């Protein structure tokens, strides 16, 4: 076939940071394959940045306009698809809304925006009959968005359990395997381009929460407001707890999960103990993994690079190709109703899991008995209880692993033990997957 006369798909690219540069690099590196698949080439026409003088990781051709004027992307009739890779909420929302209003398909990697203002943007895209695609917003190169939207569309999804943040997983792996201090591991993740511009989103669990909200929308056809999702980050994880967990046969991982409980959803993001026999326990570095259980498919596990320039760009290119294919009817959320209803949640107090509790206590008679008594009174059954290490300033660590118990029972135990004079403040509690 001679494609010489076929116009390229023209991209207006907002953002030339880690992912934007990765996109330019992948479009160049794989140009022949992309053209073979699409029957057209893909060309970046205009690039929006904040700082025109900043050095860039990629070289753009002289034909590419680099600008600080966001309107240049949406008013140009030659631009077919606007690709938003700048992050943040307000400017990104404004750009995407303008692009859709101007009749352009949009690709974005911005999970924070999709979690917070996705319903408005999906409604607008549906009204305009345009595509708003976001494979890169969840788990980097891992094709979980398309998997939920299309490949598993014939299922009722029973659960999704994922390691959804590369930075957090990189930090926990580096602390566990190399004994790196938390701050050094975070600095390295930032240097490698894994972290968000505001890395507190990664370490406080909110980036994983944003992704979980996007996945819940795809799997269950409903919107979950961020403020209703229980979220805990990894700043509470210490080398000591990583070591204790390992001695019990567990890794500590930041897990985002949702389960269908008779139509209501039980969902949250927490650092959790994951038994070393589970595949998720062996996901290392900036890799992500998502386990989806469909009621027809059974369990499926996807694993791959969750962050970084080329892996994330791989997902962006997939969306560009999907939108550029002739005759495509955009399938944004995978559901026909717009706006989608709000998710109904199981109260997080009712969440039932096993638990890990690490007390630092005075090394004296009766302590173990007092804690065990409180657990018994609140119906928490102990699976293992171990005193760890040598006394330091008269205090020792005692670690409990419990059988399954609702979180409200553990909160009641922690309230009791918090008032016991022989227990140091700062008891550590993690759920066990
Ligand atoms: P980044 O390295 O900080 O790059 C952001 C780019 O956007 C920069 O080029 C910046 O311009 C430009 N920009 C930001 N705000 C702008 C504004 N108001 N007007 C014009 N240009 C603006 O970010 P990134 O890591 O590539 O991430 C981009 C998006 O992808 C975010 O939504 C992020 O959550 C998402 N994401 C990132 C990864 C990853 O591994 N990094 C993976 C998946 C998804 P200047 O360079 O001139 O400052
Ligand atoms: N900061 C994100 C992470 C980028 O570390 O997973 C990928 O979404």
TrEMBL record:
Q: Where does NADP(+) bind?
A: 14-21
Q: Which InterPro entries match?
A: ACT-like_dom_sf (IPR045865), ACT_dom (IPR002912), Asp/hSer_DH_NAD-bd (IPR005106), HDH (IPR016204), HDH_cat (IPR001342), HDH_CS (IPR019811), NAD(P)-bd_dom_sf (IPR036291)
Biological process according to GO = methionine biosynthetic process; threonine biosynthetic process
Known EC number(s)?
1.1.1.3
Pathway where it operates: Amino-acid biosynthesis; L-methionine biosynthesis via de novo pathway; L-homoserine from L-aspartate: step 3/3; Amino-acid biosynthesis; L-threonine biosynthesis; L-threonine from L-aspartate: step 3/5
Q: What is this protein called?
A: Homoserine dehydrogenase
- The top EC class is oxidoreductase
Recorded hits in CDD domains, A to Z, give: ACT_HSDH-Hom
